Amino acid sequence: MRVLAPPNATTLAGKIEAVKQLEADGFAGAFLPSMGHDAMTVLALAAGETSEIELGTYVIPTYTRHPVAMAQQALAVNAAAGGRFTLGLGLSHEVVIADSWGLDFGKFVRHMREYLEILVPLMQGAQVDHEGEAFEVHSQIDLPDCEAPPVIVAALGPQMLRVTGRLADGTALWLAGPKWIEEVVIPEMGGAARDAGKPDPRVIAGVPIAVTADPARARERISRAFAMYNTLPSYQRVIQGSGADDPAGVSIVGSEEEIEQELLRWRDIGVTDFYAAFEGLNADERQHTREFIAALAPSL
Question: Is residue 253 one of the residues assigned to a domain?
Fold first, then answer.
């Protein structure tokens, strides 16, 4: 199981430095959320400062970028990264897309299905003639110096997981525990991939993680820090389907030995990549967690 992490920083220069540090520390991937600076721009710049680490988005909302524009930008970033870029996509949420941005969030599964039906062939250089309910596209992108990056989708529910298995390369999960992954994610997405004649898809799973001597207080802190996810219906379903009540319930918290055993459990159920959101009661605990996970990663 590979270990990925977010390049946490507040400035553009800081994020690039954070990617460089993740590579120096031996992490397999630096996957950047979409908040703040444009994630693909940051990663294109970071590509020139790194040589081995995988660079990915976790994740870019689809509604604000037409699939042709997304394909062009993703191809350019992958060329800049020498083939190390992974495009992570997601729907976002109604409160963002409809309430904040003023866009239609209806029929979102159809939206993602058509989006991928256009995006993936475009990035592979095919002529796309698509006339659907969400998009009408007649286009081709011919860029001889660019290769198509892998596509992962933030697929939380069964319908989205089946679309992802059929049309993409894997999923980018957040706050999904082992129960949900084993009982829903892998059967739904994996079955769709097999039916489409594709290899087993990638399962990237991310939760807060903390090495601490005070698990109860650490979980209280995580509950407060990630309380917003209790207001989002899609995350509520996944958290509850994982057998928990809130984000703290799906987090990995405890001693070094407990953390190692839990990560091995995630690996054994079929998680291919763990996305580590480092937590703790203070900066020292967060740094210790990061150092421990970096040292543990080669054995996972």
Answer: no
